[in-house]
Amino acid sequence: MLIGELSKYLDLSRDTIRFYEKLDLIQPLIRNNGYKDYSEQNIQQLRLIQTAKSLGFTLTEVKQITDLMSVNEIPAEQFHEILEDKLNVVRNKILQLQNIQSLLENLITQEPCPFQKDCDVSNIHKQ
């Protein structure tokens, strides 16, 4: 499959596919005429990347996972640890966002002190 077909098939831009190649996340076959041929394995790799990104994994983390997979199958325990670590990161982000939400709600429901001349901004976090 050529890059144009792959792009349409997976709804990914050609630039994104080329970027993943540059990061060595996928390795298409190069034909005699110089065109790149993308296999079913490349399609599966790209789907894995899309899924991992939708779960919040960075491309660096995806690369680490795919490197582990290329050497051998990832042991279930190790894969479970990877997922647990990502879940903990997500939980921490949720807590941070909830704190921001609370601060914003307090600013909305109370007098918006930070926009007044003599505001003691240090008291805002204590509300």
TrEMBL record:
A Pfam family it matches: MerR_1
Keywords: DNA-binding, Transcription, Transcription regulation
Lineage top rank: taxon: Bacteria
Species per Swiss-Prot/TrEMBL record: Acinetobacter rongchengensis
PANTHER family: HEAVY METAL-DEPENDENT TRANSCRIPTIONAL REGULATOR HI_0293-RELATED (PTHR30204:SF94), REDOX-CYCLING DRUG-SENSING TRANSCRIPTIONAL ACTIVATOR SOXR (PTHR30204)
Coiled coil: none
Name of protein: MerR family transcriptional regulator
Gene Ontology MF term list: DNA binding; DNA-binding transcription factor activity
Residue intervals of the HTH merR-type domain: 1-68
